[in-house]
Design brief:
By secondary structure, the chain is mainly alpha-helical. The chain is about 55% helix and about 5% strand. The chain has nine helices and four strands. The chain has a four-stranded mixed sheet, with helices on one face. This is Glutathione S-transferase.
Length: about 240
């Protein structure tokens, strides 16, 4: 069984949360838009999907012909099918809840540099972005980080407890990694307040099953995606 993962080439974006799960679990997949002519193929493929069409990438196409869109929804599917989440309903929904909360913060991180409209360049909304960035740094990041820390205080090494990671742990790693890129000064200041979250980031980065991927050119660098580093938007 090989999945087709569709996401724009050139940036990690929301597709990276899905890639990490596929890579860590050793699940076969094709990163279709990273193949020659991929972005054009992605645009054509999206238009051709009349049954359950995705709103936007990422989306996953299964060997049975299912089209599954939305990052958290894709991970919910992979978690149940491939054992990347607890098997009991309460555990699966808890991990899904964590993933949805991660998605909330991912969206807020994006909106720091595009607070008015996605269709406008950052340079067209710099004044609003500076105001949004201060609120995000001082209020929103600590609020979310405190919640993740609270979970780990009760659950232990991993977000769902137990002795093995779930897809939510991989996603929290990616979230922290992206925030450290976009807001290095602020995240350095906050790191000591959330030691369990930061240790989880380190544990995921050290997972043997991720080393080949994390050290390859398949792990795309940050740039003009969700997590962007504008020095003027960062502060301790």
């Amino acid at each position: 069984m090989t999945y087709d993962l569709w996401y724009w080439d050139g940036i990690p974006g929301r597709g990276e949360f899905v890639r990490l799960a596929l890579e860590a679990a050793g699940i076969a997949y094709r990163d279709r838009a990273r193949e020659p002519g991929g972005d054009e193929a992605l645009a054509r493929d999206m238009k051709a999907r009349d049954v359950h069409p995705p709103f936007a990438p990422p989306y996953l196409v299964t060997s049975e012909g299912m089209t599954i869109g939305q990052t958290a929804n894709i991970l919910l599917f992979l978690g149940e099918r491939h054992g990347l989440a607890p098997q009991d309903p309460a555990g699966r929904l808890w991990v899904h809840q964590i993933q949805l909360t991660i998605a909330d913060l991912v969206a807020e991180a994006h909106d720091v540099h595009h607070p008015i409209a996605n269709s406008l360049y950052y340079e067209d909304q710099k004044k609003e972005a500076a105001r949004r960035a201060r609120h995000f740094r001082e209020e929103r990041i600590p609020k979310f980080m405190g919640w993740f820390e609270r979970i780990l205080v009760h659950e232990g090494l991993w977000l769902a407890g137990g002795d093995r990671w779930t897809y939510a742990d991989l996603s929290l790693f990616q979230l922290i990694d992206g925030l450290r890129f976009a807001f290095p000064r602020r995240m350095a200041t906050l790191a000591g307040q959330y030691p369990k979250v930061m240790r989880l980031h380190e544990r995921v980065a050290a997972l043997p099953e991720l080393q080949a991927y994390l050290n390859s050119d398949r792990r795309l660098p940050y740039g003009d995606g969700i997590f962007r580093h504008y020095p003027e938007l960062d502060a301790a």
